[in-house]
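Question (not urgent): is this output format expected?
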Amino acid sequence: MKRAASVIFRSFILVLFGIALGLYLADNGQHGFPLNAHNKVSRVLQLVHHNYVDTVNTDSLEGVAVNNLLQNLDPHSLYLPPQQAQSINERLDGGFEGIGIEYQLLRDTLFITQVYNGSPAQLAGITTGDRVIDVNGKKFSGTHLDQMDVNKVFRGEKDSEIALSIQNSPGSALKVYHIKRGHVDLSSLDAAYVVAPQTGYIKISKFAATTDNDFRVALKKLRDEGVDKLVLDLRGNGGGYLNAATELASEFLDKGKLIVYTKGAHEPRTDYMSTDSGLFKHGKLAVLIDEYSASASEIFAGAMQDLDRAVIVGRRSFGKGLVQQQFGFGDGSAVNLTIARYYTPSGRSIQKSYKDGLENYHNEIAQRMQKGELFSEENYLRDSDFRSAAVYHTSAGRKVFSGGGIMPDIFVPADTISDGLLVQELENRQVFNAFVIDRMQPALGKFRGEEDFIRNYQVSDSNYDEFIAYASQTVREMDSKEVKESANNIKLLIKAAAARYRWGDNAYFEVLNSNDPALKKAVSAIKGSLVAFDIKEP
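Got this back:
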């Protein structure tokens, strides 16, 4: 359920590969020095620092200057301020130091919406629905909270203590919890469950240091439930570590298969081969991708397609075939620098063109929508990126192309009728979660568990009308036609949000996927009732 309006934000987070270096900006502390071709950037910053008419933040200027320099190279070389670099690295390294909660700020109060398994918060007895009133004896609720304030309060060094005054329900007495911060594991796997007889579903949100282990744990549980076919969902997966993608690919391949190779002007060709430790070498596999599947997701999908190991279902992927290495500064900021291109086993580079500048590059998915590619297989196959693209062949001789992403074997059009601007705004403003917190607690308490809820709960028309009235307090102007057209999808999202709030991500995706046409096609494909098309030569 990814939408074109979030293209710019999503494309900026597709640059997720790590390691480390430093950049030195000389500072003589002198005036009147000569400028030369080798130190203009650092000298100009010094001139501003020592001579400019007003006081300016030169640290911020340095970041802007470095980023402008990098963005003139390619769209994925960029500067990361300290907080952004830390956030990306925590996501990919698999954890952080804190108490292990997710939250929503509602009426200037922090409501806890998720408590991570095994986290300090869970061990202390914190539960979803709790609201934080005071922290360390000082007023917290009603102090004009924002995300930065919350992160400063809840993050901290391991074993440092935080005291939370918690209210479990409106009007109830406060209870104080003393919690020692600790390491909180972040899984790269969003969901894993049996989606059809003998068929498992696994959704992976990013390629992190923990991805292969997360996958192996989930797969073993699914196998215990009789799974011998698998749908791997990489939709919306913006990438991550290259090694994480190759490790996951090895789970599905015999030893010694070429998964991907990289090379650049200063990087000799490096081949990444499958190992002999794979857990799912021979079961049937389908991989779901869309226009937001990028980078490491495309490495994985490209390898599975080129080696005829899986059927690829969905829409053309993002088209990021550049490899970044992260080089860090002493202040915690970093540069993600493109050091190589990667190529699929057949020799394809799937990087889309960036010759027309950054704005066009980041708007390219919106352009796909305007051209009709996202909605029509005919337009999709006729796309200009592929009309002149070189032809490559899979191991079995099927034609595949190199221009601008991985083209799936089975096309599934996007649905914009139910996923319009209204749904986007409701999600962005977190109205679904707020409604669950404020209005659905009594209903959720009536169900014995997630299976009972998923099977038996339906959002009625009266529930829907109540939600729209509630949402109108936040989204002031709602088009009546869109309210009507989006009704079924909004009902589904209400139910999914309630499932996640009460039972977690697995329940959320099980509800969300209950009527997903791409998932249905993937399941049919690995059962043998759908046949992948052989892409015709343009």
